[in-house]
Amino acid sequence: MSLRDRLQVALKEAMRAREAERLSTLRLINAAIKDREIAARGEGGEGVVSDTEITAILSRMVKQRQESARAYEEGGRLELAEKELEEITVVEEFLPRQLDATEVDAAISAAIAEAGASSIRDMGKVMGVLKGKYTGQMDFGAVGPRVKDMLG
C-alpha cells in the first residue's frame, strides 16, 4: 500500500472514530501534499507526488513542529508545545523507522565507499547518496557533521 493510500485510510478511520486532533493533523498532511502537487504542475510536471517526496514533506513537517514546540516551551506556552508534540506523533506514524546511531554510522561509511569519497570536497556526493537512500530515516542536519568527521 502506498504512503498516500495509508494516509487516506487513516483519515477515514479518524473521521469514523471522531478523533478531532488526529483528523486535523492528517488534513494538514494532505494539504501539504496537495500544495506540492500544485507546485509540480506549475513547474510543468505531472502533478503526481511520489512516496519519496511525501516522506520528505513529512520530515519537514516534523522538523517544523519540533522547532515550534521548542519556541513555545521557551515562551512558557506549554499547552501549545504539547499540541505540536501530539502532531509530531501522528506525522511520525507515516515515516520510516529512524536509524539509530550505529546504523547511521554504517550508512555513512557505505555512502562514502559508494561515492568514492576521499576528502571534505566529496561531502556533497556522500550527502546525495544518503538523501537518496535514507530520506526520512535520519536527521541530515545531525548527519552532516558526522560525515565531515569521517571524511576529515
What can you see in these coordinates?
There is one protein chain. The chain has two domains: 90 residues, Orthogonal Bundle (Hypothetical Protein Yqey, Chain: A, domain1), CATH 1.10.1510.10; 51 residues, Arc Repressor Mutant, subunit A (Orthogonal Bundle). 76% of the residues lie in helices and 0% in strands. The protein is built from seven helices and no strands. Helix 1 packs antiparallel against helix 2. The longest helix is centred in the middle third of the chain and has 24 residues. The termini are far apart.
The number of helical elements comes to 7
CATH superfamily of the largest domain: Uncharacterised protein YqeY/AIM41, N-terminal domain
Round the mean pLDDT to the nearest integer and report it.
89
Q: Please give the domain count.
A: 2
Order of helices and strands: HHHHHHH
Instruction: Detail the poorly predicted runs.
Output: none
CATH class category of the largest domain: Mainly Alpha
Main sheet, how many strands, which sense, barrel? none
- Give me the CATH fold name of the largest domain: Hypothetical Protein Yqey, Chain: A, domain1
Q: Which structural class matches the secondary elements?
A: mainly alpha
DSSP helix fraction: over 70%
Gyration radius from CA atoms, angstroms: 18 Å
> Approximately how much beta-strand content do the residues carry?
under 5%
Please state the overall shape, judged from the principal axes of the Cα atoms: globular
